[in-house]
Amino acid sequence: MLFTKLSFCQIDDRDLLIRKLDSIGKLDQVYRGQINDIRNRFVGDSIKLKDTLRKHFGLINKIDSLNLITVSAVINQYGWLSADEIGEAANSALFMVIQHSDLKTQEKYLPVMRIAAKNKKLKATSLALLEDRIAMFQGRKQIYGSQVAWNMQTNKYTIMPMIDPDHVDTRRADIGLNAYADYLSELGIVWDVEQYKKDLPAIEEWHKKVMNKSKAKN
To answer: pTM for the complete prediction?
Structure first.
């Protein structure tokens, strides 16, 4: 690995680590930023859309796996490094790579990240996103409504199952997340809580099928 058992305070090692994490953070986002363009490009051709997205996500998964090797080594050696220690971009990279990892890895680092959030080394909002994602992958309902998935059957985003949708804004405000309607508007979704509650049984059934399909692959 790039990082030996040197002290984190040694400047050469620190600078190398920060540059590497900054690069990983950019790489984590660059191909994810192309997903909506792909959907828009093939919006009228579902077969081509599915094939293109399958290949694109294959590339993303490969990059995620390589990024995780480095990030796991960093966390295992130094613990969770705060923005004060390595800067906002590198700190964010640590989170994004774990957020985009497999469920087993997320569960492994969740206790570490809970302690980091308690000690102000990780944003409470970032921890909330991970808690939601783990809940979704475990087949449970999310808390803060952050997990929105693309439904290939309807060709639009679907808000994954969420507890008590009437009070999602209260829960989000408690940890510093923005209003739910504002969050969803960035994805082109209009928040209608009454309609969501009506749709929830069907969403839960779809969620169950997606998770079962994912487990079968693994």
So the answer is: 0.88
